[in-house]
Amino acid sequence: MQSKRQQIVEILKRKGSATVDELSESLDISSVTVRHHLDVLQSEGLVGEPVITHRATAGRPQHKYTLTDTANEVFPKNYNGLASHLLDEIKSRHEAREIKTMFETMGRRLAAESPSPSGETAKQRMNRIVDFLNQKGYVAYWKNSDAGVTLHTCNCPYNGLVEKHPELCAMDVSLIASLTGTIPDCSCRLIDEKESCAYLIKNF
Questions:
Q1: The domain made up of 96-201 is a member of CATH 3.30.1380.20
Q2: Which of 48, 120, 140, 152 has the fewest CB atoms below 10 angstroms from its CB?
Q3: pTM
Q4: Residue 64, beta-bridge partner list
Q5: Domain boundaries, the chain
Q6: Which CATH class is domain 3-74?
Q7: Would you say residue 61 has pLDDT above 80?
Q8: Share of residues in the chain with pLDDT > 70 (%)
Q9: What is d(CA 82, CA 162) in angstroms, rounded to the nearest whole number?
Q10: Cα 163 to chain center, whole Å?
């Protein structure tokens, strides 16, 4: 994002709302330039339509600008940091066997969000599974082979966490086992700097 526009977004985030004149004074740029930047930010869905407010003293009404909900996405998030601390806390309070069971259960619960319709062909089922995984951010696809079906996931939604918490890989195995009805053989993993996590599903 252009630096002045970034500054406008930061000012609106900090103050809640601001007029063109207030932004002009804060940034030491002309009102015309501020309006241009606001127009761009509105076209990007980051700034909403201005709200007319009346001055306490005599004068023309002012237009106050605020950020949209979409603008929150441009600010840094620390979801991974929070998740890592939560996982550390959980693991400090439970034995390894309980942790393993917990993550396997999470995988099954996640799979339950994609109910399996009756009468599906194997191809239809794999396509549904891939669509479901893609909705969850896995960037998945599948291929037939003589040994069975190989399911590839090219993105790890838990990147940045899985290195410290490999239990998340076990959760993915449980997820795929629940979706396919077969415990898969994991032949390669993204964490090992491969192009994808690959799961061989035999007798599918």
A1: yes
A2: 120
A3: 0.70
A4: 19, 51
A5: 3-74, 96-201
A6: mainly alpha
A7: no
A8: 97
A9: 14
A10: 18
